[in-house]
Design a protein that fits this description.
Blueprint lengths: L15 H24 L6 E6 L5 E6 L5 H18 L15 H34 L10 H22 L2
Antiparallel strand pairs: 1-2
Helix pairs in contact: 1-3, 2-3, 3-4
Length: 168
């Protein structure tokens, strides 16, 4: 079966690991929203809004900029939820067939689920750190934040590619 639109539509229940990832990701997201709301009135007018490669603040901006992170997180989440619902629309190798479609769909959907929730965790961490720095309690991200964020996204992608290569 080629990458044509005539892929089988298969109803797959959400797996236990997908539920666990969702609980973790949504908990971080909602927790960061609660943290932002509960600290909003004590935040100074100027908050950190950009960091250099060493994780040091190199630009300050209005506290209203903090609202952007939860909005972006919500947008990404909604987009990824849509992608999760339609795994037949994902990109697959030419060897996709009616016989192995379920396996391919599951690997792909789990990857989208993990990336959605990792994104929520990263956004929550950024929001928490921005608020903490603005309140004088944070120390900045440090040099390791960006490499850790990149690796945390790359690991599930590499593992999904390895799993897909094993599907016959």
């Amino acid at each position: 079966m080629s990458n044509s639109p005539k892929r089988p539509k298969i109803s797959l229940s959400k797996t236990k690991t997908e539920w666990i990832w969702d609980i973790i990701g949504y908990s971080f997201y909602l927790g960061s929203l609660f943290f932002l709301i509960s600290n909003w009135n004590v935040l100074p007018d100027q908050i950190p809004s950009h960091f250099n490669t060493l994780g040091e603040v190199d630009r300050w901006g209005s506290k209203m900029e903090l609202i952007v992170l939860p909005i972006i997180g919500a947008f990404i989440t909604l987009l990824m939820i849509l992608l999760e619902k339609f795994p037949e629309s994902h990109n697959y190798p030419e060897r996709l067939s009616n016989e192995n479609a379920k396996e391919f769909y599951l690997v792909s959907r789990k990857l989208v689920n993990q990336l959605k929730n990792i994104s929520l965790i990263i956004f929550a961490f950024i929001l928490f750190e921005l608020v903490s720095i603005a309140l004088g309690k944070g120390t900045g991200f440090g040099v390791w934040f960006l490499p850790i964020a990149i690796v945390s996204v790359l690991i599930p992608i590499v593992l999904a590619i390895i799993k897909q290569k094993k599907i016959r």
